[in-house]
Automatic annotation (TrEMBL):
This is Ribokinase. It comes from Rhodoferax saidenbachensis. K(+) binds at D233, T235, A269, R272, G274, S278. Its EC number is 2.7.1.15. Residues 2-281 form the Carbohydrate kinase PfkB domain. Requires a divalent cation, most likely magnesium in vivo, as an electrophilic catalyst to aid phosphoryl group transfer. It is the chelate of the metal and the nucleotide that is the actual substrate.
Length: 310
């Protein structure tokens, strides 16, 4: 079983020609609300991957915004461990998506900030604990420490980007970051390979957008090229990757196979609107992989060069 402990937000999404600069007002077009939040998105991705039962520890307010979040999670088959906070609203996120599918996000944590170390449920029967950083750092660290002590594999998505305490890194088995987060965690601005060398975690995975992804496990590198798609909305793509990756690893897949599955799932998500609404089912991902050839030697060499591995 997989336990995701993290955030749930109701996303308020507006589409515009471009993302506003500081002080700029932009006229948007389409507006919709979607269930979101890094933790909830990753829980849905894990559940839809179908590899193992997925549970989620989540903080929600006693308000209308919590209703669609609970419905989406339960609809995906996620079993909830809800901490209700009547004095704090459900988390929200305000997202602007540009015509080239980039996004800018502002999060109001609300009830997410009320998760405490004592809220962690029993970990008996769980194989993996998936964490993010939209909940308090001391809580995330306490959860990781407790999980490691009980033999549960700890997977941390270090997003939003911030420096990590040594205690949290010491109790992390798999660290997943994007390129910017890697620079923040490593405190270095060199190549991908140089930054990875500065972080002492058994398995590191770096998502690199349209370049693909790069992983280092016990000193050995694995590369996964990006799938060719025309993106519509990249919101939730990284979360889809994380949830799908953990689901694949929990099923016993090798790291290269898990990277391939996660990359395909996130590619599909980029072709659809919204966060949880864009996450594919396992059968869709398997079919997508079958329809797309593996990375060519030339493309892999280009990815190696991009990561500083040549």
């Amino acid at each position: 079983m997989i336990l995701v402990a993290g955030s749930a937000n109701l996303d308020f999404v507006v589409r515009a020609h471009h993302i506003p600069s500081p002080g700029e007002t932009v006229l948007g077009r389409d507006f919709k609300t979607f269930p979101g939040g890094k933790g909830a998105n990753q829980a849905v991705a894990s559940a839809r991957a179908g590899a193992a039962p997925t549970h989620m520890l989540v903080g929600l307010g006693d308000d209308a915004f919590a209703v669609p979040l609970e419905a989406s999670l339960k609809g995906a088959g996620v079993q909830l461990h809800t901490i209700r906070t009547p004095d704090h609203p459900t988390g929200t996120a305000f997202i602007c998506v540009s015509d080239d599918a980039e996004n800018a996000i502002t999060v109001a944590p609300g009830a997410n900030a009320q998760l405490r170390p004592e809220h962690l449920p029993s970990l008996q029967g769980f194989t993996h604990l998936l964490l993010q950083l939209e909940t308090p750092m001391e809580t995330v660290t306490a959860y990781a420490t407790a999980a490691r002590a009980q033999g549960v594999t700890v997977v941390l998505n270090a997003a939003p980007a911030q420096s990590l305490p040594a205690e949290l890194l010491a109790h992390t088995d798999v660290l997943v970051v994007n390129e910017g987060e890697l620079a923040t965690v490593s405190g270095h601005t060199g190549s991908i390979a140089e930054c990875l060398a500065r972080i002492n975690v058994p398995t590191m995975v770096v998502t690199l957008g349209h370049h693909g992804s790069c992983a280092r496990q016990h000193g050995a590198f694995t590369l996964q090229g990006a799938y060719p798609i025309t993106p519509v909305d990249t919101t939730g793509a990284g979360d889809t990757f994380c949830g799908s990756l953990v689901a694949a690893l929990s099923q016993g897949k090798t790291l290269p196979d898990a990277l391939q599955f996660a990359s395909a799932a996130s590619a599909i998500a980029c072709t659809r609107w919204g966060a949880q609404s864009s996450i594919p089912e396992a059968a869709e991902v398997t079919a997508f992989i079958a329809q797309h050839p593996k990375t060519s030697p030339e493309a892999e060499q280009a990815l190696r060069a991009f990561c500083g591995l040549t």
